[in-house]
Amino acid sequence: MVRDIITYPTPPSAEYSTDVRKFDDELFKLIDDLKDTITANSLQGLAAYQIGSHFNVVVVKKEDGEFLELINPRIILNNGKQMVKESTAYFPGLDANVSRYDKISVVYQDRDAKDNSIRADGEFSALLQRKIDYTFGSSFINKLSKDEKKLFEQKLEFGVEAATIQTCPTVFKRDYFKKRVNLLSIIMVVVLVVSLFFDDAMQQKMFTTQLNVFFTAFLVNVGYFFYGYYEGKKYTTCTSCQIGNIFGTFAIASVRLFILLGLSYLFLG
After folding, report:
1. 13 in a structural domain
2. Helical H segments across 8-145, by residue range
3. 163: CB partners within 8 A, 6+ apart
4. Low-confidence ranges of the chain (pLDDT < 70)
């Protein structure tokens, strides 16, 4: 029988799986239901946990397409690392880059309660690890790096796969422009104050210097605005707040420059 698969945000009905002790018809029916559900949904595997069962049972498709039934599976050995792009039925339509062991050895029991073991590598190894994670009440979200987890949470929030790892950094290249504008503004203030101690002829020359500094600073400020706009568009997760900040910074710097120019004209022009 095809069973409903629990999907996000509905929490599973059990916190973790319980080892099977009775190998009876109830267990066999659960395994058959897992196979039917895998086939009906074109999946590679399912843990009983994913359909609301507390039994520690995993069913996966092997590379030859045959089903592998794992009762009470445990990973006992691992070796190497691989980065795998994974998807799971609990988060339908979404995927993430997950760090997994490249090679693993798994012990488990079959329908006859006999002990077995299997070695796996590559994609099949990742599949087994992902399904066995569920038997401990976990999903791949707990295996993600900090950046990848942040990205995946954005996908869950907005329901889109188009998100990219572009979290807002704390330092931007556009800050180079802003620092230069601030430096040129300080120069204008210094020139204005110092010029007050000179005669009219020298003040005229210094006003010419002020004009040159002003135009340079204003052009750098314009450069800040356009480059900042371009840079802000790169980080789609926080574009709106960045653009507002860029516009505000540009406007404040421009007003400050014009005020300094006005004071320079008033006292030196």
Report:
1. no
2. 25-40, 122-135
3. 151, 154, 155, 236, 237
4. 12-15, 157-171, 233-242, 269
pLDDT of residue 163: 45
How remote is the C-alpha of 149 from its chain's centroid?
Answer: 5
Q: How far is CA 162 from CA 29, 81, 152, 201, in A?
A: 39, 27, 11, 63
DSSP characters over 75-90: EEEEEEEEEEEEE-TT
**141/95 Cα distance (integer angstroms):** 10
pLDDT at 234: 64
In a domain, 165, yes or no: no
Neighbouring-strand partners of residue 135 = none
Q: Kindly state whether residues 137 and 104 are assigned to the same domain.
A: yes
Residue with tokens 């509905």: 10
**Looking at the 3D structure of the chain, how many domains does it have?**
2
d(CA 102, CA 173): 38
Q: 168 and 238 in contact (C-beta within 8 Å)?
A: yes
The confidence score (pLDDT) of residue 142 equals 84
What are the backbone angles phi and psi of residue 92, rounded to the nearest 5°? -60, 135
Euclidean distance between CA atoms 158 and 94, whole angstroms? 11
Give the dihedral sign, CA 156/159/164/170: negative
- The C-alpha R_g of the chain, in whole angstroms, comes to 32
Tokens of 130: 């992902």
